Structures are given as C-alpha cells and as structure tokens.
C-alpha cells in the first residue's frame, strides 16, 4: 500500500528480529504484505484500516516488542485514537496468559529519564572523585644521615590551577552527557504514537514499545471508535535479525 511507503523511522542502536503473523484461515478481514522485508498485516473493517508489524528490539534502556501501527479513517466522522488503550497479552511457555506493559510516549519517556538519571548520578560520582583528586600530587626524596643511614621524605603538593582545570573539564563532560541524553529522548519521541484526532480519510503511522517477556504468542489489541483490531504474532521462534 502506498501509505506504507511514507513510513521512515531512524533506528539508533537498535537490534531487531521480525515476528511471524498467525492468521485464521477463514479471516477475510486481513490482508498481508511485505514492506522492506517486514511482514505487515492489515484489518479492513468497520470503516477503518488498521495495519501492524512486530519486532523484538533492544536498546540502551531494555528489551521490547516493538509494534509499528498504521490507521486510516474511512468513515464520514472524526475519531480520536488513544494510545493508552492499546493492550497486549502473551501466551507463555507454561500455557497461561500474561498481561504485558504497553508503553505510551509519556511512560516510555519516563522510563528513559529514570535510566538516564541513574547513569548521570554514577558518572557524576566517578567524575567528581577524579576531579577532586586532580590537584594533589606526592613526591618522594631520599636523604642520608651522617652515619650513612637513608631516610625517605614524603611531600604532598596541591596545585589549585590543575584542580580548577579538572573541575571545568568534569563540568563540561557532564553538560555534554546531559545534552546527548536530551537528544536521545527526542529521537525516541519522534514517530512514537500519541493521542491524535483522525478526520475522514486521515491516516497516521507510528510505533509503540511493549515490555518484552519470553513466550509463545504475542497478541496486540488496537481499539479505535469502539472496535477492537487484534493481531497474533508467533514470538517463540529464533528468527534471523531483520535488516536495519
């Protein structure tokens, strides 16, 4: 479909594995196609086309099932898409069903910031120790007494200028790291599904992350205008990595 050709996401430090769609033989509402090597499934029902593909992803903040979602409103009235209503279940290897956490943009940003705060605190502690000891140095000198015995003198030195330079370097590194973290959050925010009004003939495309657990079948439920569009994905197989 031509709408999928508009879908371009920049993935930074992400490892992906595509999943296998599970379809019922008599389900006539589903159409599938491959786009850029990835299998997409579309449900065309109740005046909407809802498409979805799924991956396993890994980045600096954890492991997830990532879902890319396409929604087109073919009705005569506007509707509001609410990402917080998207749900997911996992059929575990034990045969029971587990509810999975589907991150909204807000909750995922909160998770990233929490991880970054920990990293910043650890880096600041380490950098502070290094900067605090930078101005100090120790020298040793050996002297001999009149009876030929040697003794060593230990002298501690403090160079305020070296300490100042070390603290300035540490502050600059902290500021640089903070800016890098801010940029990383902005990159993750781009394309993440958010609350959106879909007017007649409007379409949106974006992604969401689901907290990953090992299991057999991943079910993703996308509600829109009182209707539920569900997709089942086989996640038990060890599949090759998808092309980046």
**CATH topology annotation of the largest domain:** Immunoglobulin-like
* CATH class category of the largest domain: Mainly Beta
Largest sheet: 7 strands, antiparallel
Q: What is the helix/strand order?
A: EEEEEEEEEEHEEHEEEE
Strand segment tally: 16
Portion of residues in beta strands equals 35-45%
**How much is the radius of gyration in Å?**
28 Å
What number of domains? 2
Q: What is the level-2 CATH architecture name of the largest domain? A: Sandwich
Extract low-pLDDT stretches: 1-16, 239-244
The average pLDDT is 78
Nutshell version of this structure?
24% of the residues lie in helices and 43% in strands. It has 244 residues and is of the alpha+beta class. It has 2 domains: 20-108 and 192-235, Immunoglobulins (Immunoglobulin-like, Sandwich); 110-186, no CATH class.
């Amino acid at each position: 479909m031509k709408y999928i050709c508009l879908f371009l996401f920049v993935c930074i430090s992400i490892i992906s594995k595509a999943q296998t769609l599970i379809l019922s033989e008599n389900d006539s509402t589903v159409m599938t196609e491959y786009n850029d090597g990835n299998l997409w499934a579309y449900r065309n029902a109740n005046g909407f086309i809802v498409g979805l593909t799924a991956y396993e992803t890994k980045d600096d903040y954890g492991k997830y099932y990532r879902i890319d979602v396409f929604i087109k409103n073919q009705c005569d009235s506007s509707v509001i898409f609410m990402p917080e209503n998207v749900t997911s279940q996992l059929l575990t290897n034990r045969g029971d069903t587990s509810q999975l956490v589907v991150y909204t943009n807000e909750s995922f940003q909160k998770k990233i910031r929490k991880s970054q705060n920990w990293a910043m605190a650890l880096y600041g502690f380490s950098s502070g120790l290094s900067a605090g000891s930078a101005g100090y140095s120790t020298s040793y000198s050996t002297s001999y007494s009149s009876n030929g015995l040697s003794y060593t003198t230990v002298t501690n030195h403090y160079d305020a200028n070296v300490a100042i330079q070390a603290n300035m370097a540490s502050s600059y590194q902290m500021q640089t790291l903070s800016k890098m973290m801010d940029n990383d959050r902005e990159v993750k925010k781009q394309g993440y599904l958010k609350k959106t009004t879909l007017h007649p003939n409007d379409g949106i495309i974006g992604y969401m992350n689901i907290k990953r657990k090992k299991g057999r079948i991943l079910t993703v439920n996308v509600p829109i205008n009182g209707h539920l569009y569900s997709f089942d994905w086989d996640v038990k197989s060890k599949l090759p990595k998808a092309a980046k």
